[in-house]
Amino acid sequence: MTYPSKKSAFNQNEGYNPDPRFDPAGPTQPQLGQLPRPDFPQYSAPVSSPYVQTRLTPVDPKGYSQPIRTNGKRRSSFRLPWKGGCCALVVVLGIFFCLAAAFVAAALILSPGKTNILVLGIDRVDSVAVGDIGRSDTIVMAQIDPVQPHIATLAIPRDLWVNIPGVGENRINTAHFFAEADKPGSGPAALAQTIQDNFAIPSTFYIRIHLEGIPAAIDAMGGVTINLTEATALYPVGVHHLDGTEALAFVRDRKGADDFFRMAYGQIFIKAAAQQMLNPLTWLRLPFILAALPQAFDTNIPATHMPALGLALLRVGPGNIESHTLPREDTTPYTTSAGAQVLLPKWNLINALVKQVFGN
Predict the structure, then answer these.
(1) 114-358 placed in CATH 3.40.50.2300
(2) What digits encode the pLDDT tens for the residues 242-271?
(3) What's the CA gap between 105 and 310, in Å, rounded?
């Protein structure tokens, strides 16, 4: 087979065909001036021609199309919505976590250590009660350890017959009443002293709950949800969402139950209220809650202790609070000479329970 010469392979009328069959040495690129104009009528080829699609390189003699120089790397078309957005996000998150770590560290450093808090509920159902005069129908001793963290509570029956300093033997719930009647504002301290003398549980701080202010506070929180494992006179077994009025009726319930069941109801309510306060959706109601709280409770806990105690509650969670109730077996029913139905304490059993809960 003979091959045409280079001269015959390239013709101004036919164009340049780079097929190797026309040149044994391979395709030869002609000079730029020898190529026809791109708009020359005869400089055309079918689009389906394999030479046009794979080998033919059009040339622009007048430089209408200029080549674009690149470094061989394809640049992404993605751009952040703002300049330095990624760095700004990292900085904001870093500041947030640093502040959170600083808060936790400060709370632990300023932690008061193991703290005993007296929680008492004042139920003023009679019309003659004024100020804070009233019997403490709910008595709970709580111990909070922010370092571990650990929270334990012990509910004390209101009818327990004990010795009250400056009064003598009487129901333990009257200690607050007599002190407030004698000197307004001294009721919590008198009850705390009574508990220390009889149970050997010292406490400096108290939280006094005014039961008549509970409905407004619970409504401001959006209600509370209780989970009953045993039926009561008001509700069957199961989960129930209560508004303020229903919550107060639940705490005060005495139908078909004695004081031991009532103590259990009080602890269920306290856990439910704490669980509701830890719900982030409840925080949206914070302005209404803060407006209702002064009518619901007062306390002498310093503001410097609040972060550590609140952090302990957040870490433990209301569902993990170690709750105890003075059992019925630790008391003996007794009728006084005046006909009052009271409970005589069995101190050997009670002291063992106190040591188990508080480590005293």
Answers:
(1) no
(2) 999 999 999 888 776 677 888 888 888 888
(3) 14
- Please count the CA atoms within 13 angstroms of the CA of 338 that sit on its side-chain side: 5
| CA–CA separation, 355 and 360 (whole Å) | 5
Q: Which amino acid is at 192?
A: A
SS3 per-residue string spanning 50-95: HHHHHCCCCCCCCCCCCCCCCCCCCCCCCCCCCCCHHHHHHHHHHH
> 22 φ, ψ to 5°?
-85, -5
Q: Under a CB-based contact definition with an 8 Å cutoff, are residues 124 and 133 in contact?
A: yes
Cβ proximity of 277 and 288 under 8 Å? no
Domain boundaries, the chain: 6-54, 114-358
Q: Return the axis-axis angle of helices 259-277 and 214-221, rounded to nearest 10°.
A: 40
Model-wide pTM > 0.70:
no
